[in-house]
Each structure stands twice: as C-alpha cells, then as structure tokens.
Amino acid sequence: MKVLLVGGGGREHALAWRLRQENPKLELIAAPGNPGIAELGRCVDVATTNVDALVELARAESVDWTLVGPEAALAAGVVDTFRAARLPIFGPTRAAAMLETSKSYSKTLMLGAGIPTARAVVCRDVSAARRAVDELGTPVVVKASGLAAGKGVIICQTIAEAYDAITSMLQENAFGDAGTTILVEEFMEGEELSVFVLTDGERVVALPAAQDHKRLLDGDRGPNTGGMGAYCPVSIAESAVLMTTIVDRVIRPTLGAMRARGTPFTGLLYAGLMLTDAGPKVVEFNCRFGDPETQAVMPVIAPNESVGEAMFAIARNEAIRDTVEFHATRSAVTTVVATGGYPDRPRTGDMITIPSPPAGVLVFHAGTRRLPNNQLVTSGGRVLAITGLGKSLDDAQRNSRDFASKVSFDNKQFRADIGWREVARRAGASGD
Fold first, then answer.
1. Which residues partner with 353 through β-bridges?
2. What is the DSSP string of 409-428?
3. How many CB atoms lie within 10 A of CB 383?
4. What is the CATH number of domain 331-430?
5. How far, in Å, CA of 371 to CA of 43, rounded?
6. What secondary structure letter does DSSP report for 358?
7. Where are any strands of DSSP class E within 53-159?
8. Distance, CA of 193 to CA of 195 (rounded, Å)
9. Run of H or E including 112
C-alpha cells in the first residue's frame, strides 16, 4: 500500500503515525511533510495548494490513495482535480468544503436545515454589524467568515470590544479576504466538544470525542490561538445518548442538507459543539481533521480498529459501515509547545533540542525545519505537539506536561493545564 499525505503539520504527523501503526509495511509519501514525518516516510517539497503538482506526484508515484490534511488544499480544489483525474482521494470537494471555508455559508445551511446553532447575523459593512451587536447584546462573538488559521474568532464582553473587533475586520483588514464578510453571533454558554466523523456522504463512523484548548494561557486566559492543546477521551461524551443525539440532530441533517444542495460531503466532518442547557449546538464545522485534537485522538483508538481502512474506502467512493464508533482504550493529553510571539508575531529560526521521549510520550512535529547541518529549528508558531499517554487522564497530563517542560528552544511557551476541566470533573466524581 502506498499513500500520499498532503500537509506538513502536527495533524499530518499524527495521521502518518497512525497509518504506520496500523500497517507497518505502508509506503508513505508526504508533500511537503516535516522532519517528524520524514522518520516515517519520504517527504517531497510540493506545496499543499499546488494542486497540479500534487496530481503529477500521485501519478508518478502510483499511489493507491491520497489523504488531505490542511483546509487550504481542500479550498484550492485538490479533491475536485484528483477526482477528475480518477485518482482516489480522501476529503470533500471545494464546494462541500465551504462548510468550513465560509462561516456565512455554513450558518445559512444550519439555520435552513434546523440544525441547532447560535443565532447570528451575516454582515459586510460596519453599520449593519454594529446594529447586530446592539440587537444581540453582550457577550457576543465576532467571526471572520473565511479561513483565518483558527484565529478569526473574537469573544467580546462589551459593546466597545465588539465595535473594535468589527472595525478591525471590516475596515482594517485584520484577516484579509477572510474578514470581508463577518458573523455577529450570539454567545453560547457551556462546555465545548470536538466530534470527528468519517463519512461517505451518508453513513458515518464516529471517532472518540476530544476537547480543544484555544486560549494561549493557563486558565483559558489570553488571546485565541489555533489550539494550545487537547485531550481525549472526554467523559461527558461517553454517554451513548449524547453521541446519538449529536449524530441524529447535527451530523445526519448536515449531510442530508449537503446532498440536497448537490454537494455531498465525504471525508472527515469535524463538528465543534457547545454543550448548552438546551442540548448540543454547533459552534463551527471543519472539513478536515482538527489540530491539535488529531494528535490526542489517533493514539487512543483501539489498535484493532482501522482508521486507514475506512479512509481508503471513502477515497475510493465506497460505502462504509454505518454508525460504527471507534473506541478509546487509554487517555491522551496533547500539549502544544509554541514559539515566542505566538499567535501574533511568532519567532522562527530558534534552535530546538528534544530529549529522547520515554514510554508514554509521543512527539509530533508541527512548525519545525531541519537545516543542512541537521540542526532542528523553529519554523512556525506551534512548534511541537507533545502527547502524553496513560491509563488515567492524570497520568497522561503529567507525561505530556513534564516532557513539554524538557523541550528546549528560546522563548518557548506552553500551557501546563491541558485537560483541567476533565481533571476537575473526575476529582469531583471521586469525591477528592
């Protein structure tokens, strides 16, 4: 089996790791890959959005199928081009990927299909956006409609903060083209949950749910980021009733609405949910594996269950078994080690030292680069994802946090409290 993996971040490293765990004889080619993925396969310097070059690579290497990691490649239409060339590929078409690439599109679809979500107003000018803030009140959420690397969401506690966010996006171009259309959205109270499902467009396979930590600093303080860590599994998602509700009220209606629009969704559908008093509501959809949730989800899935087999079937446009759930057999906590200045002005080029990881620790590369002299240096804001494993969440958290503290580069930053809600919840349940 030969697979082309498109991408070069921590998510792709975790997917490569999982595929090789399931099939040690797998031949893996990554475009462009990273130094961590290079230890599992061969990296080729092709950009994720260079669709024609990716098709040429897949043909030249006679790969059996292609797995797309990042959203930018999907937005560039890589799946459409591969399908036109009759090359098996896992992921949604450009039109289906609008569930993520356009928040205004996904919000309109949800409201039209009766999928539970927050009230929102789509705005393209400042005055309309300010009227929406006045109508919804505070706290309120201001979102860039397009792709903004996970940073285009601002939670505003006051009217003044909301007005500033609107001005920043619509007048000052803070997020470029991604912010020319924005959503002013009702703030939802509750706990967030990340649910991944593999789908052939109709049938679904649910992966263990995870919880992401978006804020930069401990205690969920500081600015929003692309994600500073995640853990899996989440005890509140272990209820069969909750997962059935999510699949029946969110996932299936969304897939049905996409089919009705003539843009069936296949691949990985990521539902970011808020567990409110009124039940689960959609915060956002992503059309690919989440980062850093993937680094926590892939290692906990039972060894006898094959994620790769399901993805291969979907890539070949074949039906998968319906409503199967992959089960977690251990706990995982992923701590992102970021560079100084992240998320606004990340430093690059700092030398990295990574000790040999002990049992119970996986190191996934995200923003790293290897120099000709073999020195590893930082090349992006989120540099490494340290996944700690354990029979308990406490063990996994300790393994992740302790090893993150041993990684060395100038001005590194990381959160020491990934999984804090779950730790508190389990301590409360045990009476500690």
1. 408
2. -TT-B--S-TTHHHHHHHHH
3. 29
4. 3.90.600.10
5. 15
6. P
7. 65-68, 89-90, 120-123, 140-144, 153-156
8. 6
9. helix 103-113
CATH architecture of 2-91: 3-Layer(aba) Sandwich (3.40)
User: Rounded to whole angstroms, how far apart are CA atoms 342 and 191?
Assistant: 25
Spatial distance between the Cα atoms of 356 and 342, rounded to a whole number of angstroms: 26
Q: Of 432, 117, 37, 388, whose CA–CA distance to 232 is shortest?
A: 388
Residue pair 193/273 in contact by the 8 Å Cβ criterion: yes
Architecture of the domain defined by 119-186: 2-Layer Sandwich (3.30)
In which element (H, E) is residue 277 found?
none
Query: DSSP code of 214?
Result: -
Give Rg (Cα) of the chain: 21
Q: Are 233 and 209 spatial neighbours (Cβ–Cβ below 8 Å)? A: yes
pLDDT per position in the chain (432 positions), as tens?
A: 999 999 999 999 999 999 999 999 999 999 999 999 999 999 999 999 999 999 999 999 999 999 999 999 999 999 999 999 999 999 999 999 999 999 999 999 999 999 999 999 999 999 999 999 999 999 999 999 888 766 788 889 999 999 999 999 999 988 998 889 999 999 999 999 999 999 999 999 999 999 999 999 999 999 889 899 999 999 988 888 899 999 999 999 999 999 999 999 999 999 999 999 999 999 999 999 999 999 999 999 998 899 999 999 999 999 998 766 788 889 999 999 999 999 989 999 999 999 999 999 999 999 999 999 999 999 999 999 999 999 999 999 999 999 999 999 999 999 999 999 998 887 776 555
363 - beta bridge partners? 386
How far, in Å, CA of 386 to CA of 414, rounded? 10
Cβ neighbors of 261 (< 8 A, separation 6 or more) are: 109
Helix or strand run (H / E) with residue 243: helix 240-246
pTM, entire model:
0.93
What residues contact 395, with CB distance under 8 A and at least 6 apart?
331, 360, 388, 389
How is the chain split into domains, by residue range? 2-91, 119-186, 191-325, 331-430
Where is 260: in which H helix or E strand?
Answer: helix 252-260
The H-or-E segment that residue 98 falls in is helix 98-101
Return the CATH fold of 191-325. Answer: D-amino Acid Aminotransferase; Chain A, domain 1 (3.30.470)
Q: Do domains 2-91 and 331-430 have the same CATH topology?
A: no
